[in-house]
Amino acid sequence: MVSSVAHCHSKHVVHRDLKPENFVFENRSPDAKLKLIDFGLATIMASPSSTFRTICGSPSYVAPEILYQRPYTYKVDVWSLGVIIYILLAGYPPFEAKDEKELFHRIKHEPVRMEGKEWDAISSEAKHFLASLLEKDPRKRPSCEECLQHPWIEKGQYILEDKEHHHLEHTVKNLKQFNARRHWHAAVAGVTAMNRMARLAHLHHHVLRSVSDTDHNSTSPSTEEDKTNKEEEKDGNNKSTSPQDSKVQNPAKEGLETSKETLTSSLKTKKDPAADDNKANVKHMPDEKEPFCSCVVS
């Protein structure tokens, strides 16, 4: 994982949405390559010191500087890597909360804790590595190239070549529970979204049906009314033909016309030269050609 992100940074690409779901194996073979996917929020940096302002990322993996809405660098990827590695070693994320407001508060202010039975089997080098990645000050965080030179990462290659496997029983148990919670929250969010869309579709259908019924009634007069209208046309000299008398009262149509006039008036106001003069008082933001995505989108 660290090598893939280091490669992206060497090509001046910042991913900005690193999470376990975005690391996939090429196939099901034991020696399958691990690949990084989903570059929908990625951006290009002109230099290692390039900064960005777009608020994006997944809530549990977003870096503190993004939550503070400060200019940030490629170091946000290093933070996200730290969160992922923390989950792989402990079986749960470093910061958990019931809602996103509390979660963001903990990411910004609470220290990273490595306590519990699952951490007894974790080496001090691994803990030191995690502490450096999850440093809240991005200036103190190492780059991915520096991460590859860390003793724990270098020693990991020899551990993989060893025939003996080191199982983390407590971590595996925690991972199963964490994965179950993740699927549960995703299912709840999916059902909530479907219910919301169903309510909107029902409301939309109801409004269209009401407008259609009123239009039909206003354009289809009865036979008696038709005869009366013809008689009034023949005897036009004796009766006044005021537009107000012949106007059909249609509340739905009047509401639509009022909304249309309001929208047209609003658009004219935006095109007003006086409004352009106020642009001088607006704080200038750097021109960053990239998509905007709120952090609260999981």
UniProtKB/TrEMBL annotation:
Q: Which SUPFAM superfamilies does the record match to this protein?
A: Protein kinase-like (PK-like)
Q: Does this UniProt record's set of keywords contain Kinase? A: yes
Q: Where is the composition biased (Basic and acidic residues)?
A: 224-237, 269-291
A single Gene Ontology molecular function, please?
ATP binding
A Pfam entry, by short name:
Pkinase
What are the UniProt keywords, alphabetically? ATP-binding, Kinase, Nucleotide-binding, Serine/threonine-protein kinase, Transferase
- The protein's superkingdom reads Eukaryota
Region (Disordered), start-end ranges: 208-298
The upper taxonomy is:
Eukaryota, Rhodophyta, Bangiophyceae, Galdieriales, Galdieriaceae
Q: What is this protein called?
A: Protein kinase domain-containing protein
- What organism is recorded for this protein? Galdieria yellowstonensis
